Amino acid sequence: MTKLERKSYGLSRAMLAAGAAGVLVLAAACSSDDSSSESAAETAAETAAETAAEEEATEAAAEEEPAEEEAPKELTKIKYVQPWVIQGESAGQFAAVEQGFFAEEGLDVEIIPGGPDVRAGALLAAGSADFAVMNPAGIYTNRAAGIPVVGVGGINQADGLLIVCKKETGIDGFDKLAGKKIGVWLGGGESGIQAATKAAGVAVEDVEWLPQKFSMEEFFQDAFDCASATEWNEKHVTYKEGYGPDNMYELRPSDEGLFLPGDSILTLESTVAERPEVVQGLVTGTLRGWQWVCSSEENRTVGAQYTVDAAPDLDLDLQVIQVDEMCDLMSQGPAEESGLIGDMVESSWQTSHDATLDVGLLEAPEDVPAGFDNQFVDAVPAEYREITW
User: Fold this and answer.
1) Is residue 350 over pLDDT 70?
2) CB neighbour list of residue 182: distance below 8 Å, 6 or more residues apart
């Protein structure tokens, strides 16, 4: 039955109902002059008209064709290189995947582990990856090497690198490093430590810098006087082995007034120019993932579990500790003042650049403001950046 036919049919039904009601009214009027009879007749007429209207609506709804379901939106595939092997340091990125935050931004994100042999800048340049996470020192050294990467979002406001020294060495400050053996992760991981050494008045060349494995094995075996560590990983490995404030010094660049930003999101300048909506989605999803993880103890454990699910050999308790440390690092400095995560502050990036230049990892100064772009962080809703912990 067409809509026009249904309308005519419904109108006829209503007219018939009204006519029937009229007969009832007339019959009631003829049979009695009593007012109660007239009232009953009027009620019957109203009921009949309502019944006809309801039947018409029911039939129209039954014959209405169901609306076609909208096809699901196709997601853009993205490869996202992490700063290191899978661990709690990447919990926010995993949460953005598992909680659907990236999908809400139209992205299908594949998390790519980093590691000692992974060169994120080269992967971006070759088109083998779309985004990566590294510190500003790495961004400027890549730019100096001709790879036009740019920071598009900050994660840590402090890089979390330190050196640990057994108390028996007597090394309780960077000014005591002259002539000592210091284990460092060469290739960029040493820049903050060496800059702090220089700031303490010790010439970098007066220290014996030795390549350190990505573990604390050599520290435990006394191969070094001091060894490199991160706040979220190796420091806690030493704690598990019985070290701590009673028998170990912890020296940080901040002891010498150096506040160096850490993990930051980067991509190629061409991606920013040609695919800004993808950049926005990746930055929004990442910051939202970290904000969600850090917002409660339960979420921190869930975020840590996501990393364990991806790398089953990990210890869950240690990953929870890593997540706690990450949440602390991203809420320091400028973030503590603004109450928001994600900002890349020029003064902090200038400090990182200068430290990298001072220790010879850059041959010439780079354009510091050209190395980062805050437009995408600024466009992330404040609720996804708010520090609630």
Assistant:
1) yes
2) 163, 193, 207, 208, 209, 210, 224, 225, 226, 227, 228
